[in-house]
């Protein structure tokens, strides 16, 4: 038996040697790296490739007002279109903050991330990267008046250097510019505004992005950063294990490099949107706030819609929670109390991110719906306490009188206690509703196009940091002041009826 086994092993070895004589190294490599997943099939089945990006990073991706419509343009968008076209599907661009992109990728909100992202060892532990599609360097953006004072990051000892949170520039400052102070923000536009207002002394940016800001913003200059970078190339991130998509993207990237599409087609196409070629008069007209009125109006519409729906469901759930706490049933009381304490003890942003990303692992909830759910659930906890305190403020004699007249507990609450309680809690409810309108701005972090989100787009498009914020403050004030007047009107009316 052992003899037959030894002969079998010899024959098997001979067969492998025979095959190796006819199969090339590239064929072996292709066989070993053959995709074992169905990501490409899924993309083709839904006929769209969803790309996540943070559109505040010119010339990679930024937003332009094209025929009154908010449109994401940029070099990365063109690369995304190329990959989608080669796959025979439509490209869908989903906007969100930069530090939320990889979370969105891991939770299935997007199929890929193209956002001027550099490949790092830390990121590669969570996602798979394509080949680099663009190589550039790292620069520092400074005020033009300081151009003779600073030469690279070593010149900023004791000074403040700003960078986008979660970016490679942020990590480079932490690791190499240890004598400098670091200031992290979510948006490059905020960092540039901080530079102009002397909150930071420099901003670390990709070389191409720094040039875009210098070309379109007066009083700025760029200098070499001096950072040692292993790879200054931008790559595309895919879900871990999505090798079929990685290989498809690499084929498209090879064509991009082969035909030099970025320099010959993509950047010239993007250049017409950056505005540096325009006359000063044309540039001022294009960047006026009136030209972006549709952006602000769209933001007001989303803000009012989110607030109105959240107020309605927040009030209903708050009423239920308050009645649970007042029911006398220990189980209901403890459940309602636990909910109220938990929601009031955790930040609204964390709740929002959990609903959008955390629950997204189980069910895909759209960003707008996630925002409405988060704001409604958060408001309900505060409304519940307002209603409970209002009901408790009513004298026990009212309940006893109603019950002595033969009214049931439910009817007593409905016709006697609750109407009186509403008069007491109306001012507090008004404050809660006004606060809810302002707090709803948090939904912008997941890409909901509310007023804050639209103001960010205007900042990115016009390179003006302060004026969009002024317009946004005025619009929020008009909304909240109008609501306050309406609440005051009903408060006076209820006070008059009680006399």
Automatic annotation (TrEMBL):
Task: Tell me which positions the record assigns to the signal sequence.
Answer: 1-21
Q: Where are the transmembrane segments?
A: 295-324, 353-375, 465-484
Recorded hits in PROSITE patterns, A to Z, give: ABC_TM1
Write down the superkingdom of origin.
Bacteria
In what way does this protein cross or attach to the membrane?
Multi-pass membrane protein
Record carries keyword Calcium: no
Q: Which InterPro entries would you find in this protein's record?
A: AA_ABC_transptr_permease_3TM, ArtM/GltK/GlnP/TcyL/YhdX-like, MetI-like, MetI-like_sf, Solute-binding_3/MltF_N
UniProt keyword annotations, A-Z:
Amino-acid transport, Cell membrane, Membrane, Signal, Transmembrane, Transmembrane helix, Transport
List residues of the ABC transmembrane type-1 domain.
Answer: 300-487
Compartment(s) = Cell membrane
Q: Which NCBIfam families match?
A: HEQRo_perm_3TM
Family according to the record: Belongs to the binding-protein-dependent transport system permease family. HisMQ subfamily.
Protein name according to UniProt = ABC transporter substrate-binding protein/permease
This protein's species is Bombilactobacillus folatiphilus
Q: What is the lineage of its organism?
A: Bacteria, Bacillati, Bacillota, Bacilli, Lactobacillales
